[in-house]
Amino acid sequence: MQTSLKRMNPATLPNAGSMGYSQIVITNPGTLAFVSGQVAQTADGSAVPDGLEAQTRQVVANLTEALKSVGASTYDIVQMRIYVTDLDEDAMAIAMPPIMAFLDGAAPSLTGIGVAALAGPDLKIEIEMIVQIST
């Protein structure tokens, strides 16, 4: 499903388009799915992988499954929030390439947030989404 989201990067704001996301996303009235923060846990309860790169890959896999379950694609994502422990330039260099590959040019509104901890001691990244869906 592809929705009619309008993505904007006004010249009066920093150029988010060059980073792969949008400063503003406008959506028409409709049904929104609020996807809880996804962490590097699997449906079968496997151990959380070590390292930010492996955890980001699992989080992206979980996000992909969440989109499938509501009949949506990355182009239907209105907003993403990314929470990372120990957020710095190195962490961004590790986490953002798989996230940008997942988005595949969709460019939702995106916020990155550094946090002291997540819901489990081994968790390094969590991503939540707001997705426009058809009913």
From TrEMBL:
Q: Which domain of life is it from?
A: Bacteria
What GO CC terms are in its UniProt record? cytosol
A GO molecular function assigned to this protein is:
deaminase activity
| SUPFAM superfamilies hit by this protein | YjgF-like
Q: Which InterPro entries match?
A: RutC-like_sf (IPR035959), YjgF/YER057c/UK114 (IPR006175)
Tell me its family.
Belongs to the RutC family.
- PANTHER family attached to this UniProt entry: 2-IMINOBUTANOATE/2-IMINOPROPANOATE DEAMINASE RIDA, PROTEIN HMF1-RELATED
Q: What is this protein called?
A: RidA family protein
Q: Which organism is this entry from?
A: Mangrovicoccus algicola
